[in-house]
Amino acid sequence: MSFDLITVFGEAGIVGKGVLIVLALMSIYSLSLAVERALRYRRAGQLSRQYVAKLEQSLATDNLADAVAESKNFPQSPLAQVVGAAAETYLTGVREIGEGRSGVDLVEALDRTLERVRDRQLSRLKRGLSSLATVGSTAPFVGLFGTVVGIIKAFTSMSASGSGGLAAVSADIAEALVATGLGLFVAIPAVALYNMLNNRVEEFVVDINDVSGELVAYVLRRGH
């Protein structure tokens, strides 16, 4: 008897087939999610670098309004959205103070906007990562469940046949081992991909904080 994956799947019982199908779906989901997030992060990084170059020009020419306008052209850049929203809050505060309609602390308002929009953007960046972590942590247990089912089937076959020979239980043992192996095969890449993508999000946090600090320093230099 051949013990390739297709043969094992064909010989498995209903529960065993269900376990193998669930593991296969978990693998497809985790890989597709990781690819989508990786492409999203790559695009966001490229756009953020483009926006930072334009922001530097705006700060050098003391034209923060351009930085706000440019941020609208980079909706997929979390950095552009954070800095653009904060700069817009600052300019609105300056205008209201000039018109005598507000006595707001501009730096405090700027910091609050930076924190609020940054948290919102980071939440979007992390979307789906918890599901990836869940796949990584639960796939081995799903495989273990399939292993238990296969072992139970093996003992049931031995009891029914009255024989303890390997031929009587080989298919059930193969089903159990395949479930274990497939569970690990799904879990290990999922955990590795989660760590890689989570590290990428942390890099976005550092970049956002750095550029936000430059914006706050610019505001302070203007005497507000």
Per DSSP E runs of 2 or more residues, the count of β-strands stands at: 0
What percentage of residues falls in helices of 4 or more residues? over 70%
Question: What's the alpha carbon Rg, rounded to whole Å?
Answer: 28 Å
Please indicate the percent range of residues in DSSP E strands (runs of 2 or more). Answer: under 5%
How many structural domains can be distinguished in the coordinates? 1
Roughly what is the average pLDDT, rounded to an integer?
A: 84
How would you sum up the global shape? rod-shaped
Distance between the amino and carboxyl termini: 80 Å
Q: Give the helix/strand class.
A: mainly alpha
Individual helix count: 7
H/E element string? HHHHHHH
Oligomer state of the chains in this structure: single chain
Largest sheet: none
Low-confidence stretches: none
Write the layout of secondary structure elements.
Elements: H1 5-11, H2 14-60, H3 64-71, H4 78-98, H5 106-125, H6 129-161, H7 166-221
Kindly describe this structure.
The chain is mostly helical. The chain has one domain. It contains 7 helices and no strands. α2 packs antiparallel against α3 (64-71), α2 packs antiparallel against α6 (129-161) and α6 (129-161) runs antiparallel to α7. It is rod-shaped and about 90 Å long.
